[in-house]
């Protein structure tokens, strides 16, 4: 989808179309969150807070922006979505199920022996997973090489790379950022999940990365920063990133751990959550109540 220029006075039909578009994404985000909760219950623990926080971003990507064929995950002209944050696999699988790339019924095998859905994303196991996760800081380098290769082939596909604010601590991320801008790879959109939390504590206490937007711009990127749990703001940002030419784009998304489920959003230790057996249904009920509001 390519962003278009809006008239000074929005047309009623255009406004209705935009509202329908946003509502469809909002419903997709709800299902992604519900899928993530169902998977989390299988293990009783995991990176469920991040999945709830980034669900709106993934809904915009998979329900609105990404070109793909669910029945053919290896379609040559598909847009590539890279999960640089391997431990966010639970969020990716929830989105892949929403996109029809993997069956929703398969989510109940999450993290089990012989499952195609391991707890850390592996390209060799899961349809629609472009790279294997693990050590952080590698995704943007892969995205840069992939985008350069696509350009040399004359392939119009775009590359999206989801990375965490913690990955901004990695020097390899900034080396890739320099290279991507140097080659003018405007077929790349980086997405930074700024949830302000890492394994060792709040991001600000681990290593100060602000001013994040200014840093990306200094590295030659078209940088946009939005509320990552505001679907309308995300749509505008991704449309702008897709339309931009001459340099790569980055959408910096301020998200909230556990968003949509107050029970989990209030957890003090939220990077890797242990959720009690009776709490999963409470979480689903709170999620449904939030959708109705």
TrEMBL record:
Ribonucleoprotein among keywords: no
Record keywords: Zinc included? no
> Where does the Transketolase N-terminal domain start and stop, copy by copy?
27-287
> Which superkingdom does the taxonomy of this entry point to?
Bacteria
CC cofactor = thiamine diphosphate
Q: Name one GO molecular function term.
A: magnesium ion binding
Give the record's keywords alphabetically: Thiamine pyrophosphate
Q: Which family does it belong to?
A: Belongs to the transketolase family.
The protein depicted here goes by the name Transketolase subunit A
Q: What is the phylogenetic placement of the source species in the record? A: Bacteria, Bacillati, Actinomycetota, Actinomycetes, Geodermatophilales
